[in-house]
Amino acid sequence: MSGAPTWVVVLAGGVGSRFWPLSTPEQPKQFLPLITERPMLRDTLDRLAAVAPPTRTMVLTNAELADGVRRIAPELPPAHVLAEPRPAGTAAALAWAASRIAALAGPDAIMVSVHADWAIGDVARFQEALQLAAAEAGRTQGLVTVGIVPTHADTGLGYIEVGDATEGAARRVARFVEKPSQTRAEALLKAGALWNSGIFAWPVGVFLDELRTHCPAVAAPLAAAGDDASRFFTGVKEPIAVDIGVLERSAQVYVLPGSFGWNDVGTWSALRGVRRPDADGNVAHGRVHLRESTDNVVYAAGADVVLYGVQGLVVVEHDGVVLVTTEEKARNLKPLLTALPDELRERR
After folding, report:
1. Does residue 333 register a pLDDT over 90?
2. Within 13 Å and on the Cβ side, how many CA atoms surround 183?
3. Is 224 found in the same domain as 161?
């Protein structure tokens, strides 16, 4: 609907166990200064100020993180920090946000959702992409996503196959593809598929209608809960991703290509793609001293860290704990954390 206000919703839940030992339940990835010297959530909100003011910005987070969000983002109205009593998946999180926006601004309001823990290389182009997505959501009265133009065949991301053109900038989505094999990823790249970023824009009334049609496991508890968040999130029995619960089932899904240096910063090794390396390919933060060492990722939170004559390591120092691993192993720390003593794994 032309002239409908744009709201921004930031998903900022989860702990980010792949950033142990720096991340903890009280200090998760989105609260950490991984890309700049400020928390990732703070950087995200600053980027979004050009899309919607704080009075039309909401942050969804775990109940135990709500106070931390308010400290990082004091400009937000307290009621705009939406605390999830229990994790219930992105379909439930976005449904709750859409219902709150609909109550405040009506069903025609446009909701743009992003995640709090991304690195963005070109902020101006990112903002333009979100503004265009909001405009196309109003024009099509559909569910719009921004697909990232791939830079390589990545098997760790989902893909979007692009379908027919429309009268505007968006094209219909042909299908969503879950994380593919290397061969399949290369074929998708050649065919012009886009990475599934998790950036969405839609009129909240349209999204809630599609939710009722395609995802009753979330829509029914939402209708029964009224304004009671605890009743709603408790009523959603199994976590459901919005992609699976709604987008893959709806016939009203559109996609726009985006190219703005997007990185979801999923592991320690991802810092190589978002921080400038030195002449020897090392990426370092803090008091790091490197001699005859190449292609390492080093994060020193407090103490001095010295590397001498090594290559391809990930080294993280925080509060008396030092993690040393390889970039390959750093992609999945869950087996390590499962094997560690509780007092070390859950160290605060």
Report:
1. no
2. 0
3. yes
